[in-house]
Design a protein that fits this description.
This protein is of the alpha+beta class and 77 residues long. The protein is built from 1 helix and 6 strands, in the order αββββββ. It is globular, with a radius of gyration of 11 Å.
Length: 77
């Protein structure tokens, strides 16, 4: 995924009204869900998501396998 595509996709999903939970799957299979539009910052192909408890998750356009508009618990198979 290119840096531009990464940013535009996440920014578009972040601005949806009403906001929908977004699951990010990283290479290697690790998944996390972005549950609030203001819990993420994007810049230059890098994102920081503050997970519950203030735990930062840093990811970039090179580390993302897919972006899914659904909670982690949703089956995508």
């Amino acid at each position: 995924m290119t840096a531009e595509n990464f940013e535009s996709t996440l920014e578009e999903l972040r601005k949806r009204k009403p906001f929908q939970i977004v699951t990010v799957e990283l290479h290697g299979g690790r998944r996390f869900e972005i549950d609030h539009p203001d819990a993420m910052i994007l810049r230059y192909g890098v994102a920081v998501f503050l997970a519950p408890g203030g735990i930062p998750i840093i990811f970039d356009h090179d580390s993302v396998n897919q972006i899914i508009v659904a909670p982690v618990s949703t089956s995508i198979d």
